[in-house]
């Protein structure tokens, strides 16, 4: 007899999901028993951390990540992290152990009641197989479903007595299956897009996160150069899809309706690729589009295409579309956009560092291909203005704005990309939501660097309180946190710095340490 356990591990092996991120409980033990030697299990100490690490890992590899959670309680802890994964189109196969079948109905301790509904609406597909024989098919389907465009998390709940049962006939076909999708533009769509782009008087390109996810940054560069187009990163960017040093690059669009239209007011054609139109944040009423401007978007996601409040949308493969467009359009006779003015170097100052200074120092000291994971909310604009990011896969940010992403994601990304240095730039508020990821970095020797921007407050909320004219709001300060002590407690070496020189020295030490390091930096509040 071939067990469900045997068949499922064969499917996971063949499909390349041999790294598990998990936090186990009684329901999961039969699944994890006799864990094969060619698999690795990365333990996270809380489920937000587990999913954050898997999210970073899956985004950095571009392949489905595998998560194993404990029943309803584990899934509940993971929901905030799932919101980020859902919004970043991260392919994640999230599995959860269920009580033994005979004990679900009586709602025994740790039964996952209505398990299929629990993770919705933050998964593409959710399933609890109706019998043990259906578990392999459900797992196989979950993997292909997670990876199919638009990629995203899926959920499978498995009663723990299923693993030892007979898989039944036919399951051997599943491991080697593959599911592909063809998302090329039709001839008519291509002709019409080329004509729109070539005939525009002053087109602008807005790149979304899925350009970077599709590794299509270089096609975006070719297209921009051929059409002499300025390029903006779409608002609330969770990735960096264009080299920030390129002469066409203008920066990160702000996340208010009126501001976007104002900044794009000179353009007659707004071409958006690989992202929603748009991920606004602060409510800033105004016109969705500048007067007379036309918007066309290409996205891999039918939800993004349909919910956009303006413009035409085409659902297609982002990389294929950009590549073929960059080949087809003819070179424009317009002058190339002039490089944007880079901000002047931030002056030296005594006492707590300005965030500007921190980013200047990172530019100076960090490797050119460093990967930044940002969750320093009030300094994001400064970061985009200053940081040089030229390679694809250089920047990650919580796609739903859910804090607790950056610290574990940095660990997952570093695990996926050992050849590049991962640097988390994380606020002293944000660092607390998934702080346990430090332990995983120490335990598995994952040499990410965590820079904690310690300004003692929820800086972004102070700014937002100003926008909303909300006065005397409680609970906005976070004094008295000692991140060096917290890091030590989780087994990670740490350094406290309160001057430029000390930060430079600490960074150099961390870069050559070959092990995870946390640097707590005293910073000024940015208002
Ligand atoms: N909880 C979760 C899970 N996600 C959130 N986004 C928030 C709360 C609300 N929130 C923000 O949107 S920004 C922010 C909070 C609490 C402040 C983060 O403070 P920080 O960074 O210290 O990390 P800054 O630079 O001081 O803003
Ligand atoms: Ca802060």
Instruction: List bound small molecules.
Output: ligand TZD, calcium ion
Report the helical percentage.
Answer: 25-40%
Strand order of the largest sheet: 2-1-3-4-6-5
Spatial extent as radius of gyration:
24 Å
The residue-averaged pLDDT reads 97
Span between termini: 66 Å
Strand content: 15-25%
Low-confidence stretches: none
The total of helices stands at 18
User: Based on helices, strands and strand pairing, what is the structural class?
Assistant: alpha/beta
CATH class of the largest domain: Alpha Beta
Record the SSE blueprint:
Blueprint: H1 4-14, E1 19-22, H2 29-32, E2 40-43, H3 47-61, E3 65-70, H4 71-87, E4 92-98, E5 125-127, H5 135-147, E6 153-159, H6 187-199, E7 203-207, H7 209-213, H8 217-226, E8 231-233, E9 249-252, H9 257-263, E10 269-273, E11 294-299, H10 302-307, E12 312-315, H11 318-328, H12 355-365, E13 371-375, H13 380-386, E14 395-397, H14 406-416, E15 422-427, H15 437-443, E16 449-454, H16 459-467, H17 483-490, E17 493-497, H18 500-513, E18 517-522
Parallel strand pairs: 1-2, 1-3, 3-4, 4-6, 5-6, 7-8, 7-10, 8-9, 10-11, 11-12, 13-14, 13-15, 15-16, 16-18, 17-18
Bound molecules: ligand TZD and calcium ion.
């Amino acid at each position: 007899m071939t067990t469900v356990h045997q068949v499922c591990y064969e499917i996971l092996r063949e499909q390349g999901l041999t790294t598990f991120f998990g936090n186990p409980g009684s329901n999961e033990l039969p699944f994890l028993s006799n864990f094969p030697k060619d698999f690795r299990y990365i333990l996270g100490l809380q489920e937000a951390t587990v999913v954050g690490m898997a999210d970073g890992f899956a985004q950095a590899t571009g392949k489905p990540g595998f998560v194993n959670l404990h029943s309803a309680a584990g899934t509940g802890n993971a929901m905030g992290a799932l919101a980020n994964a859902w919004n970043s189109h991260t392919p994640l196969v999230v599995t959860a152990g269920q009580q033994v079948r005979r004990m679900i109905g009586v709602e025994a301790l740790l039964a996952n009641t209505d398990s299929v509904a629990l993770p919705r609406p933050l998964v593409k597909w959710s399933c609890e197989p109706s019998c043990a024989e259906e578990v392999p098919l459900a797992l196989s389907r979950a993997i292909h479903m997670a990876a199919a465009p638009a990629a995203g998390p899926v959920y499978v709940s498995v009663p723990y007595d299923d693993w030892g049962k007979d898989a039944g006939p036919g399951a051997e076909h599943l491991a080697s299956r593959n599911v592909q999708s063809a998302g090329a533009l039709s001839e008519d769509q291509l002709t019409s897009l080329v004509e729109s782009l070539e005939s525009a008087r002053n087109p602008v390109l807005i790149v979304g996160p899925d350009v970077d996810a599709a590794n299509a940054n270089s096609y975006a560069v070719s297209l921009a150069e051929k059409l002499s187009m300025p390029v903006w990163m779409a608002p609330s960017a969770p990735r960096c899809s264009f080299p920030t040093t390129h002469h066409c690059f203008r920066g990160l669009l702000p996340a208010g309706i009126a501001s976007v239209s104002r900044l794009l007011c000179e353009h007659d054609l707004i071409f958006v690729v690989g992202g929603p139109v748009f991920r606004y944040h602060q409510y800033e009423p105004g016109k969705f589009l500048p007067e007379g401007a036309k918007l066309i978007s290409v996205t891999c996601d039918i939800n993004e295409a349909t919910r956009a409040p303006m413009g035409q949308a085409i659902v297609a493969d982002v990389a294929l579309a950009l590549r073929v467009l960059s080949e087809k359009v003819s070179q424009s006779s317009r002058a190339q956009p002039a490089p944007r003015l880079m901000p002047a170097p931030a002056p030296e100052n005594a006492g707590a560092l300005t965030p500007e200074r921190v980013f200047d120092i990172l530019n100076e000291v960090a490797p050119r291909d460093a990967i930044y994971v940002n969750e320093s909310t009030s300094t994001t604009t400064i970061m985009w203005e200053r940081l040089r990011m030229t390679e694809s896969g250089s920047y990650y940010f919580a796609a739903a704005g859910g804090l607790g992403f950056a610290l574990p994601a940095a660990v997952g990304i570093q695990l996926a990309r050992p050849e590049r240095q991962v640097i988390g730039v994380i606020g002293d508020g944000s660092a607390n939501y998934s702080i346990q990821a430090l332990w995983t970095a120490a335990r598995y020797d994952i040499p990410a660097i965590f820079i904690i921007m310690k300004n003692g407050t929820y800086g972004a909320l102070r700014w937002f309180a100003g926008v909303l004219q909300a006065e005397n709001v409680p609970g906005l300060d976070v004094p008295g946190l000692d991140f060096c002590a917290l890091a030590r407690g989780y087994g990670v070496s740490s350094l406290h710095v309160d001057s430029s020189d000390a930060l430079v020295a600490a960074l150099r030490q961390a870069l050559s340490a070959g092990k995870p390091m946390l640097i707590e930096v005293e910073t000024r509040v940015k208002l």
